[in-house]
Amino acid sequence: MFFGVDGPYWTLEDDAIANGGDGDGEFDENEANADAVGVAISNASLALALFSPTNNTGNAIKYIALKATADHLGFVGADVFQIEGSTIAVSLNIATGTGVTSVTPVMNFSGELFGLFDANADGVITVGELRELNGQAADSSTEYGLVGDLLYETTDDQDDEVSLAEVVRILDTSGAGGLSVAE
């Protein structure tokens, strides 16, 4: 990404061998647009969530969660000002509004995900709970998995424990390291 003037800072056309690039599909300094001035960011991701309670009883608490990462961020195109960073990660998880103090709880995303699979809220995810969530009887002798990776097998006991990390790994069909509504 590039935010500035006289851009873009780099394109795949700049990388083309016919234009003096090496054709590898990745940025190299000699492929940069010398006229571009601004902020260049590579391999960035941003997630932003804004929440407010649905049972708003006059309390105007709002919850904000943000996670941003980038492999590289830097000011380019001017020697007067130089700043750059690599392997950048920014996380924010706050509550704001009327009555918020330093001890006001914020969103616990890991707890929320765990609660989706821990049906009886005992702090443990079991094969029986996963079977019931999948529309099967807790003590059935069925298996479930995706693409050859089994979440539980026919021989697994309903009280066998399954880690949240394993549930996410198996159900994460996109390979993004988390679960989306579509998965």
TrEMBL record:
> Matching InterPro entries, A to Z?
EF-hand-dom_pair, EF_Hand_1_Ca_BS
**Gene3D superfamilies tied to this protein:** EF-hand
PROSITE patterns for this protein: EF_HAND_1
Q: SUPFAM superfamilies under this entry? A: EF-hand
Mind telling me what this protein is named?
A: EF-hand domain-containing protein
Q: What is the lineage of its organism?
A: unclassified sequences, metagenomes, ecological metagenomes
